[in-house]
Each structure stands twice: as structure tokens, then as C-alpha cells.
# Entry
Amino acid sequence: MPLQEKSPQSSFELVSGLEIHVQLNTNTKIFSADSASFGALPNQNISAVSLALPGALPKLNKEVVAKAIRIGLALNCSINQINHFDRKNYFYADLPKGYQITQDNQPICVNGYLEIQLSNGSTKKIGINRIHLEEDAGKSIHDQDDNYSLVDLNRAGVPLIEIVTEPDIRSSEEASVLLSEIRKLVRHLNVSDGNMEEGSLRCDANISIRPQGTSEFGTRCEVKNLNSMRNVRRAMDFEFGRQVEVITGGGKIIQSTLNFDADKGTTSPMRTKEEANDYRYFADPDLQPIQISDSWLAKIKSAMPALPNEISKQMITEFGISKADAALFAEDLDLLAYFNQALPVVNTKKSLINWLIGPVRAILNEKGIAIADYKITPAHLAEAINLVDDKKITQQIATQQLLPAAETEKSKSIAELAQALNLLITDNGAELGGFIDEVLNKYPQQVDAYKKGKKGVLGLFVGDVMKLAKGKADAKKLNELILEKLK
Ligand code: ADP
Ligand code: MG
# Structure
């Protein structure tokens, strides 16, 4: 057998750190009362502050700080209880002040980590270097007029946080898992909609390579503005291959900022370090340092919901369900809330879980709605489940007739409704006996065949009796009754 040639890529290791921008979902902007909503007509959400009219002063939106703290706590960061804003100075048409208000050397959160789960089953901690607060810039539009560039300042001043990881990432899989975990967290904590298509979550990937087994970092390149999980992986894989080619070809990596072309799947240079801007950061004199009191911090901490990983672990140990099933609850707070409201009413917790991930999910999918829009209250669902578990109604009739009826009939309890609609299982032995006789009389040859050992025909009898009983019989009990008669 020929020896397989070792690819040059396998002798190098990828090293990466991400800078993740998250747009916070506050109603108003970070330093003004202008609406921060997405999708308004151009320049609708602007006032003196967004326009940077002379003399306009910023006033900090407290909710922005609270949301940054929540995400910092979820990422196991220390909260800098005194931190401040800096000016990052540069000139651009979509930045009317001539500087962006951001945080440089004293960000709000530092020194955290996030544990991620990889596809091979292992877990890994990725360090979080810092999280800082900043404002977004406006948007220049170059393709709507032949002679002019247009500018839309709706986005100017929309609050962002930037999460900067340590260079702990070693593969494109780790990068995309990290990003998807962060998206889950920001949604779970209600700090952002995490929508990558609309740019609420976007990231820059810093990438370098080094020979396997060495510890020194190589020179890095930064790929800007990756706006989907897939593009993060593609850009990283491409850039890794490119850098390996440069190095093995005897070249050197030049520290630079790169664009990613999503059509071609390639990176191309924007600027090198020599051309990099000097932003002349300094503390913004228009804004007081932020002081986070112990009591406010404690209040935010105590209001934190359980995090998805904790919920998932708890559900696995408490109810013995699979990781995939637990994830359904951990990643959908509405489903979790529904579950918790139904719990006190249901007799068997495991049944409730099975119903929510089985029949109820199927009903919601068919209707194309979310659990929050389901017209059956958690208590009513729990009552229906109890009826099924107590063999008072079949699961099929409960899902196909009782629950749909309960969506509109709210005045009765579930049991009353099942009674009124005549859906309960017939435990009237005489009635069932009558049906059985009827069926057995209908099939004398098959009865004969059964007695001679052809046990397969039993299904035919059960099916027919079930039809006569309009499905309202417990299949197991029916089986027993028929067997009895056949003796
Ligand atoms: P700067 O302030 O110059 O942007 P930072 O130290 O803040 O530099 O790093 C920016 C990002 O680059 C961080 O996510 C960090 O983890 C990552 N990074 C730093 N050095 C490297 C390297 N050699 N290779 C890959 N990523 C790196
Ligand atoms: Mg940076």
C-alpha cells in the first residue's frame, strides 16, 4: 500500500480570536431618546444627538449598561464597577461627530470564559478577554444615485457591545460553535435578537497559524464583518489554507485587515498594518465615568435566569431525557415556561415532556405557530395528558378531537368537555362485548383460522371493534376482551 503523503496543512495549527459585535435590543439609542428600531424609513430615527448638531450632548441609556452586565455575567466575566467611555477618532460620512463613542482601556466586563461543546463530545473553555460598550455608526449608500452618496443615520447611536475572545480558538468548528452559543445566550437573556441576517450579530475573525507543537503565536490577519455562521467557517478555512501556502512557499504573513468575498469564498486585503488608522483614543469629556453600585449589580445578578446549559443539565438529570430533547427546552424559554406552568397539574412529569416534544410539537408545526401562540393553556394540556394516562381517553382522540375542541371551548374543564363530546373511552364491558360479538360473527372463517393457529388475524378483529367503538376503547383492554371471547 502506498504511503499517504502528508498534506502541508496538517503540520500547522490554526489560532484565532473573535471580535463579536452584538446589537442590543433596547427601545432607544445608547445616548439619546431616538428609536433604535430596525427597518424605519431612512433618517426617521434621528435627532440633534444622532445628527451631532453643535452643542448636542449624549446622555447614557441605563438599560444598555444593564444588558451588557447581564451578558458579562453569563460569560463569567468580572464586572468593572467603574469604567468609562472613550472617543475613537476618525472621519467618515456616516459618522457626523467625527468620532465613535466606545470603550478602550477600561471596558465594562473583563476576564471571562464560555464553555463550548464540540461535535466529538469534548468540551472546551474559550477565554473572553473583554466586553465593551459602544455606539453603531450610520450607513452610507452608494448605489442609489449616480452622482451622490446618500447617508442614513438611523443606525447612528444604536447600542452595541463588542465581545473579544482570547486567541483560544483552534478550528473553524470551535469558532462557529462559540458564535452560535453566544447567539443563544444573547437571545436567552433578552439582550439582543441575535439576528445575523439583519446584522444584529456579526464578527471579525483574527487568524494566524503556527507549526503544530509550537507555542509562539504567528502574525495575524483580521477578516472583517462575517455575517453568518457558515461564512465564519468558510473564511477561516480559506484563510488557514492561504497562510499555510504562503509560509510553506517561503513567504511571510503581513499583518493586515481582510475582506471576505462570500461569492468566491476567498479573502482579499483591505489594508495592512502600516496603513492602519491611528484613532487617538481619549476619555470622552461629555460623559461621566459609569459607576455601578454594589446594590445595582446584586439586583441584576439575582434577576438572571438560569442559563441554557444549566437548564439542560438539570432536565437530563431530573427527567432522564436525552441531550437533544433537553436542548429543546433549554433553548426555548417559552416552551420552558409552558412546561413549568403545566408541571403542577400533570400527574406524570415524563408524560408532559413526551407530549411537548411529540404530539404538541407536531400540532404547532402543522399550525405554523410558536408555543406562545398555542390556544391550549398549560393547565388544560396537563388535564388532557392525565386523562390519557388514566386510560380515560385515547391519545389519538385527545390530540385529534379533544384538544382542537378545547381551543375554542374555554368554559368547561377538559374532563367535562371530553364527557360532553362523548370522547371518553367506553369502559362499558357490555357495550364492548356487543361490538366484539358483532365482529366475530362477521368473520366466521377468520375466527376458525385463528383457532387453528393463525394468530395474525387478531389485528383485524381489534381494528374492526375499534371502529365500532369510534376509537373510544383502550386497545390493550380490547385485546384482552377479544382473546377471552376467542378461548
Ligand atoms: P487589537 O487591540 O490590536 O485589535 P487585541 O489584543 O485586542 O488586538 O486582539 C484582537 C483579537 O485578536 C482578539 O480576539 C485576540 O484573541 C486575537 N488575536 C490576538 N493575537 C492573535 C494571533 N496571533 N492569532 C490569532 N488571533 C489573535
Ligand atoms: Mg481589535
About this structure: Residues 68 and 483 are 67 Å apart (CA to CA). Residues 15-19, 164-167, 206-208, 217-218, 220 surround adenosine-5'-diphosphate (ligand 1) (CB under 6 Å). The longest strand covers residues 123-135.
